[in-house]
Amino acid sequence: MKVVKAVDVVKDYSLNGMTVPALRGVSLEFEGGEFTAVAGPSGSGKSTFLHLIGCLDTLTSGTISMGGSDLASLSKKQLALIRRHNIGFIFQAYNLIPVLTVMENVSFPLTLLGVDKNEARDRARLALHDVGLDSMENRRPKEMSGGQQQRVAIARALVKHPAIILADEPTANLDSKTGREILELMVQLNQSEKTTFIFSTHDQMVMDYARRVIMLRDGQVESETKR
């Protein structure tokens, strides 16, 4: 089943009165349960593409549909609801809330969904167990290593059981050993949860783990390989 369909997507930015193209007619489809890397050099448009899928930015022309809905036709409120219910995000900078504990960070998305406090804690505890952080629920981000913080970010993304997880350069701030551990964890979760993972990356290790690799260059699809 297709979870995302992009057709002739164009994204331009305005910089000092000039139009700067980020994406130039990208057409791609993603099936449920994929583990896919959108790769390419800096400036290729990979992060822009993820931000458009994640309803964090709006396209200039073309269409992106999710669950049969054309994102461009939705209001800001409707887009926020899609982000809240259907999409999990993992960022290279982790984006954890520093004043909250690990448990509070992971349960926060459920709080936004109006989930009962006790149920939210139970689900957060299970998500932390899945990423191997059972004993750290009362720590704060500054008390953890980069790899541990990224595991918290993965648990936070998974806790609401989204259809899609978008991971923007998730290994960029990790050493190779920790990055490999994080990727193996995400492979396991992809297989057990059947969640669609879409990465933006220039890390060859991420591409090696992906079952599908889409190469972007200068805002266009240059090549695509499947394993």
Automatic annotation (TrEMBL):
KW Phosphoprotein (keyword) present: no
GO cellular component, one term: membrane protein complex
InterPro entries: AAA+_ATPase (IPR003593), ABC_transporter-like_ATP-bd (IPR003439), ABC_transporter-like_CS (IPR017871), ABC_transpr_LolD-like (IPR015854), MacB-like_ATP-bd (IPR017911), P-loop_NTPase (IPR027417)
Superkingdom of the organism of origin: Bacteria
A single GO molecular function term of this UniProt record: ATP binding
Domain (ABC transporter) ranges: 4-227
Record carries keyword Nucleotidyltransferase: no
Family under the similarity heading: Belongs to the ABC transporter superfamily. Macrolide exporter (TC 3.A.1.122) family.
Protein name stated in the entry: ABC transporter ATP-binding protein
